[in-house]
Amino acid sequence: MKIIKSIDDIQRTQKTFKKDSVALVPTMGSFHLGHAELIKMARKQCDRVVVSIFINPYQFNDPKDLKSYPQTLDHDIALASDLGVDILFTPDAGDIYKNDRCTWVVVDDLSDHLCGISRRGHFRGVATIVAKLLNIIRPDKAYFGEKDWQQLLIIKKMVDDLNFPVEIVSVPTVREWDGLAASSRNKHLSDAERRDAEIIWKSLMAAGDDINNGQTDINKVKILIESMIKDKENLSIEYLSLCRPDDLTEVETLDKPLLVAIAVRAGNTRLIDNLLVS
Question: What is the pLDDT of residues 191-206, one digit of tens each?
Fold first, then answer.
């Protein structure tokens, strides 16, 4: 595995791949089970696998959140190597964002729902860095997890609107032993918060069962989820949405498919999850 920091170096290396298919797995490091699954899928589907590690400052609303984001580069290097990654791309912020930058990528509408309501500018930062990485590396396929469903939709829309010659591959959410969606943020949870957080997935599954068993009242589904989560003293709901999975607009009737999406605060840690009911 090669570790490359320079944009020029990775572009020179990429040219040597010739007709090999190239996969990109964009990350901010602090690898967990979800990252491993993305890499494994990329390894199965492409000849060459490039994984980027870049903690993008422009997708953090709170400077404290950026400062506290876990950095585990030695662990990440070891795991990437074990999983057969060909190139680990670890650029510096000064190389990615020049001081005179004035170009941003904004995906309207999709960015205004769910996480976009409380995290203004977050998806502008996400779309911009992904666009830059796609342009730098020129992969055939790029891999994203379904836990970040809104991010996945935004990236797919950006790629379609801007005619990027890349296939966006979605990978199902990976869960830890208690059902909690794998996330770098899980490391911030106290033992009590972690015990309480397992109710998030359980509440989504209960809602899915309720819908599949014929429930037609949207409010009753929301009350079911809210009651399960509010029973845990360390949790509070930031948003809960029953929406269309293709554009994130709130549903008026419980027609399938639909997405049940939620953001929960566990102490100071923000957790998101979703369930596709189809």
Answer: 999 999 999 999 999 9
- Cα 95 to Cα 171: distance, rounded to the nearest angstrom: 29
**Torsional sign, CA 228, 173, 270, 116:** negative
Residue for token pair 């890499």? 39
Tokens 């379609």 locate to: 160
Please check whether residue 18 is in contact with residue 57, taking contact to mean a CB–CB distance below 8 angstroms.
no
Amino acid at 238: E
Q: Which residues pair with 242 in a beta bridge?
A: 260
Out of 35, 113, 122, 188, which one is annotated catalytic?
35
Query: Catalytic residue at 113?
Result: no
The Cα–Cα gap between 56 and 30 comes to 13
Q: Rounded mean pLDDT of 159-187?
A: 97
pTM above 0.90, yes or no: yes
Domains and CATH numbers, the chain: 2-171 (3.40.50.620), 184-273 (3.30.1300.10)
